[in-house]
Specification:
Length: about 375
Amino acid sequence: MQKARKLAEVCLFGSIKKPLTYHIPDELQSPDLIGRRVVVPLAKRKQLGVITAVDVNFDGATRPIESLPDLQPVISTADLALCCFVSEYYLASLGDTIRALLPQPLTSQLSQRVQIVSRERLEQSAVAGNELAVFILTKSRGRGIVAAHHLQSYSRAAIEKLIEAGVIEVDWNVQTSRLKEEDYQVEHVDSADLSIELTGRERGAIDYLAEWGVADLVEWRKTHRLTRKQIQDLAAVGVIKIAEKPPFVEPLKPISTREFHPTHAQEVAIGELTSALAADKFQPFLLHGVTGSGKTEVYVAAIQNAVKSGKQAIVLVPEIGLAQAIYLRLEDIFGASLGLIHSRLTSRSRYEIWNKARSGKLQIVLGPRSAI
């Protein structure tokens, strides 16, 4: 009698809107398959997707899942439940909803890698009899990276043990697409030779950078009506520097912060928010107040209470310019636990912030609607 195959429901990142059913080969069996990315056959090509359910019932013929490119799920069961709710509520396909939740590199790239942090500690673990350490040493062949799919036969506990010991790190091998002009910023060069001949517009643009230090390349070019050829020439002679935007974009001038002494109205609002957080249930609030009345301080107090209770927070603002202005103000309070994300960042930068929030290194994320 033929052994019953274990089936999985897979949501694809392509044009197929409904989940498809595939069977799971014995060598890919794992207790944590839900939320894992998979590579599956679709017609004559391969497609990337996410397992959303296992042990499903299906009477028709199925094709096998070909590989699991990662060592852990990319989406938690809680986030998957959220995606199911959003999919049903907004009449969107589950695959499109999951795709919107994940950063773009994870929906188009397939590889995860294991990086050797300390070869010395890896060799010590191998000598001590750690089978996984022996395997990584053999498979790395002197290199510092091993493709993650080679470790599929080893347990999560074995991998986590080496991670906790500072022997290896696991990360996605994100290949970014070619950068666009919007992905760059222009920076002032303190040691630049300004005795060279410059046009009036070029001189004005350089003076602007001397005052502010850095500017968005596109906005700077448009404001000072410079051609791309002029910018290339200025960079070539070392008058300016063109660089990829960093993951965290700070405003051009710091915003002063003031010591917070809540008014009675603020204390009432903070008390209501704190009670709702303590109840651990969803509850919307409308905070009313004119500009400058101290609404931001109430938000800050609510965020602090959320973080203290082990939760994370997302702060949404109407536009990118305002996000950058509020970022430094909140950074003065929350430090490295705060991340800024918006559509003008590169795909790698957005991925890095997503990954830090996912791992718990960031407790607060700030940005416009795209930050969701």
